[in-house]
TrEMBL record:
The keyword RNA-binding does not apply. InterPro entries: Tscrpt_reg_HTH_GntR, WH-like_DNA-bd_sf, WH_DNA-bd_sf. Residues 15-83 form the HTH gntR-type domain. SUPFAM superfamilies: Winged helix' DNA-binding domain. The keyword Ribosomal protein does not apply. Keywords: DNA-binding, Transcription, Transcription regulation. GO terms for molecular function: DNA binding; DNA-binding transcription factor activity. Signal peptide: none annotated. This is Regulatory protein GntR HTH. Transmembrane segments: none annotated. It holds the Pfam family GntR.
C-alpha cells in the first residue's frame, strides 16, 4: 500500500489539506506504518497521487522537516528521521540500513526475510 493510499485527505474537512498530510504522516510514524530511515515519495509524486497541488505537499514536508520529523537529503529524497521513541527509532534505522546493505549485495526481499527469520529463531 502506498503512502497516498494510507493518507485520508478530506477536501471538505475542517483542516487544510497540507495539515491533513502532515498529521497523517505523523500518525503513520506513531503507529509504526512509516519507520525511521524509510524514504517518502517525492513531493510531486505524492501530490499527484493525492490530487493536490505540489505546493500543498511541499508545505507539509517543510513543516515536518522544521519539526525534525523528516529530513531531505538533496537528490536522494526525503526520509523519516524521528520515531515514537529513541530506542525504536534506532532499531528502525539499523533495520533499514541492514536491508539496504543486503539489497546492494544482490539479495532479494524473500531471501532477506528468510535470513532475518532464521536469525531470530536462533538458527
Amino acid at each position: 500500500m502506498t503512502l497516498a493510499q494510507k493518507l485520508n485527505i478530506d477536501a471538505d474537512g475542517d483542516r487544510a489539506p497540507f495539515d491533513q498530510v502532515r498529521l497523517g504522516i505523523l500518525d503513520l510514524i506513531a503507529n509504526g506504518e512509516l519507520i525511521v530511515g524509510e524514504r517518502l515519495p517525492t513531493v510531486r509524486a505524492l501530490a499527484a497521487d493525492l490530487h493536490l497541488a505540489a505546493n500543498t505537499v511541499a508545505r507539509s514536508y517543510r513543516e515536518l522537516e522544521a519539526a525534525d520529523v523528516i529530513e531531505t537529503r538533496g537528490r536522494l529524497g526525503s526520509f523519516v528521521k524521528a520515531g515514537p521513541d529513541d530506542a525504536l527509532a534506532t532499531a528502525q534505522r539499523a533495520t533499514v540500513a541492514h536491508v539496504n546493505a543486503l539489497r546492494e549485495l544482490g539479495f532479494d526481499d524473500e531471501t532477506i526475510v528468510s535470513l532475518v527469520q532464521r536469525v531470530t529463531r536462533g538458527a
